[in-house]
Specification:
Layout: H1 3-8, H2 10-20, H3 26-32, H4 36-47, H5 51-64, H6 74-85
Length: about 90
């Protein structure tokens, strides 16, 4: 996933951001609205981190997200369901 995708799907992603950075308020997440620089600024503000560290965390967060649930390939979903049956 990249930042363009995050920005476009922020409503789905912001719950994951809230889990990762609990000090971010709902208002913070609304202001961020999927924008990298806004997230970096809020991380600096809420956690007192240096800009390069906040940027690293933000980028790692996006890299860790492979897909969102609504992007899951139907074939992969069915294959996983069948594998669970044994």
């Amino acid at each position: 996933m990249n930042w363009d995708q995050v920005e476009g799907k922020w409503k789905q992603v912001k719950g994951q951001a809230k889990e990762k950075w609990g000090k971010l308020t709902d208002d913070d997440l609304d202001v961020i609205d999927g924008r990298r620089q806004q997230l970096v600024g809020k991380l600096q503000e809420r956690y007192g981190t240096a800009r390069d560290e906040a940027e690293r965390q933000a980028d790692e967060f996006v890299r860790s997200m492979k897909t969102l649930p609504d992007e899951t390939n139907a074939y992969e979903t069915e294959r996983a369901r069948r594998a669970g049956r044994g």
